[in-house]
Amino acid sequence: MEDFSFSNLYSHPGKYLEEHLIRVAKMALTNWEAIPITVLGGFSKSDLTRLVKICGLAHDLGKSTNSFQKYLLSENTGKSKETRHSLLSAIATFFLIEDEFREVTHLPPDQKKLLAFVGFLAVKRHHGNLEDVLTESFLDTKEEELLLKQIEDIDADRLSILVEKLKNSGLPSDITRDSWSGWVEAFPLELIKMRRTLRQLGRENNLSWYLLTNLVFSLLIDADKSEVTVGELSRKEVGIPPSIVGEYKSTLKRGETYLNQLREEAYQEVINQDIDLTTRFFSLDLPTGLGKTFTSFAFALRLREKIKEEKGYTPRIIYSLPFLSIIEQNADQIEKILKNSGLIVDSSIILKHHHLSDIYYQEDTKEFEPDQAKILIEGWNAEIVITTFVQLFHSLISHRNSTLRKLHRLAGSIIILDEVQSIPFKYWLLLREVFQQLTSSFNTYIILVTATQPLIVERGQMFPLVDPQKYFPRVNRVTIRSDIEQGMTIEELVDYLTIKEDQSYLFIMNTINAATALYQLMKKKVKDKIIYLSTHVVPWERLERIKALQEKKFRLAVTTQLVEAGVDIDFDVVYRDIAPLDSLIQSAGRCNRNWDKEKGLVNIVRLQDNKRAYSSYIYDSLLLRETEKILLRNNVLYEQDLFEMVEDYFHLLQNKKSSDDSRKLLEAVYRLKYTSNDQQVGIADFQLIEEDYPKLDVFLEINQEAQEVWNTFLEIKEIKDLWQRRLAFDKIKGDFYQFVVSVPINVENLPPEVSGFRYVNNNSLSDFYDPDTGFKLKGG
User: Fold this and answer.
1) By CB count within 10 A, which of 5, 309, 356, 586 is most buried?
2) How many whole angstroms separate alpha carbon 547 and alpha carbon 560?
């Protein structure tokens, strides 16, 4: 039976279309109004409020066709071109925004048109990814014919009821079938004018339109997904006093060592800094092992409190790190700090988000269903978010719906970039521009944390939370000796080594092949058990081995660079195959880290196979060349000299190394060229981590736990409904990938494919997997 107080049009099964549109508009506006942006791209807060409102109210208008309603409500009706709704909704959005701003006098006509086009883009692509705006500014004859046919397929009476409801919530004008058809027929001419404007826009070298477009898109798609799955959300702002870090530190049993004294001195210097809120960038440059996690988090809490007091809003804290291996470590520490303070810690207070995050979200005593939890986690619905550089930077520079959805959470936030030296040099210029716009337009604060501060942000723009010269000269834990004039093979290195019984040794290699070869030779040379680490060992086993090293159960380890930054392990002697200077210094941070010995020793060598140096396979030749010059001039280095040396190194790189990759991507950003073609780079080409060769994932059934996870995976594959199947897999994804390694696609011994995944069962394990060195590569 029809309810004549509603249009009896539906957006989703059991949900009236007008209810969905009004709620999405309300949620998008709630998120927008909470953001401390007053002006963006020359538009006022009020201007953009009106834009966001129309996008929310109009984004699914195209669902009012009879074809879509039949598809939605009948199990026997499949999707067809007549059921598409995004383009039809987007054209309505364009003209509704024009109507909304028709009487506005403070904006020139071309600016109003651009606002309308931003709304058109957001609505057209709200179920997909953004595309090159010039491509979007064309409408072919077949598309126009289909749109007119769809409008004829709309029940005029139901549309009238729908529009009345929407007008009561702020829709600026009537929509009839005739007016909608007129909009479709007028749109090609509007697009011709728009193409001229867009080409001019691309020559302005301004990030404002890119951020504005992505922000509107983010607000719309987050509200849309959240309304359907979770319903209306409200942020539970929680006061988190900065003193909780010091309170937690006082519970730790730390001796009165010189290193602990330095840690405390640095901590006190930071938390007692006067905070000037006109400063947007802060740097924390301290030697490795001086407690940067605690100190940066304590400062972020102080900054959060001061912003709340003086500006009237409470920022989220986004704590971002380069590697999954240290996310768990840091998240665990921060959670302990929060719990020690007596806070009831749930997912609305702190959550971890990366591609293997558990799909679990709890607020107070309410545990959300997996589909709801997924939406809440991916939307960063928490006061403190711990995430990867990939998640963060791909929220800033992307065309993808899934990554841009959380962009609006960055506005007004405090971002901690830990181990910031891990950002590739080729993206420094790009990120410098993005960071500048983020801090100026989005009211964001950024804290850059490292022992080797890169020149992403100019030194004059950053406020140093400590004076590095006060700490680096006082830390003299290691001597770095280099022997790189002549290359040596791994066999020659092993012959050369003298392993002392009373010392621990860490060997860091540049490639998996080099690490495996060294491990095999070392096993013959020494009697002690050796720990081996590389990405060809399943993550479950890697974590166990890192724990064993942290507990000092073994004194010998051979590893790739995966321990280079942030992994809290400590050895007396480190051997490091040559790498760029900042990587060498990070590796040195694994030597005598806790200053248990008077002096640790780091040996830099140049290892080569029968063709070339291993370093040349993975590092940029200019970075290596400049590092070699430094090492050849100073074959003995001391820790207290490293800060100034790295400063000189980074300045030298900035003067010598090309930023072509950044410039091409910036050009794409200025022109809103979201997708690429053969001639031009697109925003979609940005990849923070680039694969050096094509890879395939392989599941290895190494133990009973892996077997249980695999059996669950097989059961999930039997679920017929695609959405339910994906949701079920998301619940086990974190556990599943604990037993997965990525191997080159061209190896000769790829295991068979089972249920769409390369799989090695326990009975065949020895054919493919070595219990010490991981996956056995043959060929490739």
Assistant:
1) 586
2) 17
User: Distance between CA 723 and CA 546 in Å, rounded?
Assistant: 37
Alpha carbon 316 to chain centroid distance? 16
Between CA 725 and CA 729, with CA 727 as vertex, the angle to 5 degrees is 70
Residue among 248, 242, 249 at smallest CA distance from 271: 242
147: amino acid identity, one letter: L
Q: pLDDT averaged over the chain? A: 92
Query: Mean pLDDT across the stretch 507-528?
Result: 95
What is the mean predicted confidence (pLDDT) over 169-181? Answer: 96
Q: Which token pair is 429?
A: 């210029």
Write the Ramachandran bin of 8: left for phi over 0, alpha for psi from -120 to 50, otherwise beta. Answer: left
State whether the Cα torsion 466-472-476-477 is positive or negative: positive
pLDDT of residue 692: 65
Residue 654: predicted pLDDT: 84
Asked if residue 382 has pLDDT above 50, the reply is: yes
Quick: pLDDT tens for 61-101. 999 999 999 999 887 677 889 999 999 999 999 999 999 99
What is the DSSP secondary-structure string of 759-770?
EE-GGGHHHHEE
What does the pLDDT read at residue 1?
39
* Mean pLDDT value across residues 314-320: 97
Mean pLDDT for 707-736 is: 91
User: Average pLDDT of 467-496?
Assistant: 93
| Helix (DSSP H) and strand (DSSP E) numbers for the chain | 29, 26
Answer yes or no: are the C-beta atoms of 319 and 299 closer than 8 Å.
no
CA proximity to 375, closest of 399, 351, 392: 351
SS3 40: strand
Query: What values do phi and psi take at 447, rounded to 5?
Result: -115, 120
Q: At what angle do helices 208-229 and 17-33 cross, to 10 degrees?
A: 130
- pLDDT, position 566: 66
Mean pLDDT throughout 449-466?
Answer: 93
- The pair of structure tokens assigned to 731 is 């619940």
Is residue 566 left, alpha or beta, with left meaning phi > 0 and alpha meaning psi from -120 to 50?
left
Both tokens of 2, joined, read 């029809």
Using an 8 Å Cβ cutoff, are 564 and 323 in contact? no
Read off the pLDDT of each residue in 235-262 and give the average, rounded to a whole number: 90
CB atoms under 10 Å from CB of 370, counted, come to: 15
In terms of DSSP bridges, do strands 317-321 and 414-418 run parallel, antiparallel, or are they unpaired? parallel
DSSP-assigned beta bridge partners for residue 505: 556, 573
CA distances in angstroms from 607 to 295, 614, 661, listed in the order given: 38, 6, 30
548 contact partners, CB below 8 Å, separation of at least 6: 531, 554
Nearest in space to 744 (alpha carbons), one of 700, 699, 702, 691: 691
Alpha helix ranges (H) inside 203-323: 208-229, 243-249, 258-271, 292-311
CA atoms of 448 and 281, how far apart (whole Å): 8
Average pLDDT over residues 598-619: 93
Give, as one character, the DSSP assignment of residue 252: S
8 Å CB contact between 496 and 575: no
How do residues 542-571 score in pLDDT, each as one tens digit?
989 999 999 999 999 999 988 876 678 999
Burial of 492 (0-12, 13-18, 19+ CB in 10 A): middle
Nearest alpha-carbon partner for 572 in 544, 542, 603: 603
Q: Taking a C-beta distance cutoff of 8 angstroms, is the pair 296, 334 a contact?
A: no
Measured in degrees and rounded to the nearest 5, phi and psi for residue 401 equal: -55, -45
Beta-bridge mates of residue 65: 154
Q: Which tokens belong to 195?
A: 């193409």
E strands of 169-275, at which residues?
none
pTM, 2 dp? 0.92
